[in-house]
Amino acid sequence: xxxxxxxxxxxxxxxxxxxxxxxxxxxxxxxxxxxxxxxxxxxxxxxxxxxxxxxxxxxxxxxxxxxxxxxxxxxxxxxxxxxxxxxxxxxxxxxxxxxxxxxxxxxxxxxxxxxxxxxxxxxxxxxxxxxxxxxxxxxxxxxxxxxxxxxxxxxxxxxxxxxxxxxxxxxxxxxxxxxxxxxxxxxxxxxxxxxxxxxxxxxxxxxxxxxxxxxxxxxxxxxxxxxxxxxxxxxxxxxxxxxxxxxxxxxxxxxxxxxxxxxxxxxxxxxxxxxxxxxxxxxxxxxxxxxxxxxxxxxxxxxxxxxxxxxxxxxxxxxxxxxxxxxxxxxxxxxxxxxxxxxxxxxxxxxxxxxxxxxxxxxxxxxxxxxxxxxxxxxxxxxxxxxxxxxxxxxxx
Length: 397
Ligand code: SF4
Hints:
By secondary structure, this protein is of the alpha/beta class. The chain folds into 3 domains: about 55-130 and about 350-380, Rossmann fold (3-Layer(aba) Sandwich), CATH 3.40.50; about 135-260, NadA-like (Rossmann fold); about 260-340, NadA-like (Rossmann fold). It has helices spanning about 1-5, 15-20, 50-60, 75, 85-95, 105-115, 135, 140-150, 170-175, 190-195, 210-220, 245-250, 265-275, 290-295, 300-310, 325-335, 355-370, 380-395; strands at about 65-70, 80-85, 100-105, 120-125, 160-165, 180-185, 205-210, 230-235, 250-255, 280-285, 300, 315-320, 340.
């Protein structure tokens, strides 16, 4: 049975990261920031909506507000466009007249927007502490160490890195530098097909960063590999916890990272919803664990989920395994269909939720007064290599 062999992810983050999460430390190279450097309006201010509207109006075409699908309703109402991280970065690049790109999302998304937009455009993240726990699980130092391990095992030349969009600019740059590509949850199979075509068919391997689940699900579910073809590299263990022989025998070297939101869905959630709602179709995101994906009826990215529910017939029943803000909005948008959240407990992306209306108002008002705040800027060398990896993705067939 495939389910028994899937590694359980119980990563406990070290104390320094917890401090960063609480906004008491700063690490500009990671996905964590600091507390708001200005005076935030009170969340109970009854004029917040009006203030956001007025500031946005004052800025006019100078500002372009991007809203990720997982954002709160109070924020998404001010988004000029909504979408997943890659779509939003491309939308921003298509608006060169906008001096300020306000990214209501998380840190790595703002970095990608900075990489893809012009030099004179400034990307702003309303709360610098809005990071991504998955992106944080692969640091530049850890990945460089991993490459040393692969070199010592004599296989680095056979390895093509493929990094998920949900990674820091440093990891994207590493990927570009080593001839690899970026992927999204929509094109992961195409990216892996491309990677395996880069060298000898029988000896090429992929180092997949940082989401083990997307890597494993794509390799096993979409490409017909076995679970034994995949090994898990744990950056917290010497040599990743793997022998040189295990590395040499693997086709997919999966980084031990996961999404703390999608990683929470379990096989029990699937069994339970099938019992509660007879005839329900279970639709989950590929960042979910392999056993959850194997038990689901359909698997797809957020864009896939949105389209599948748009196209579903009235009266159909759906249990959705992705972030709760999006599931709630989809349920409200389709009152003729029964759409429920896959798990019984709430499951927001806590870091994404840090972007709230007070932060957005503070950001827009600061920009309207001519004060550039919370800029996310990727240095030139990192940008150059990260762009190479992103361009390889854009060129995928
Ligand atoms: S939902 Fe998961 S992958 Fe997306 S930003 Fe939140 S923690 Fe990161």
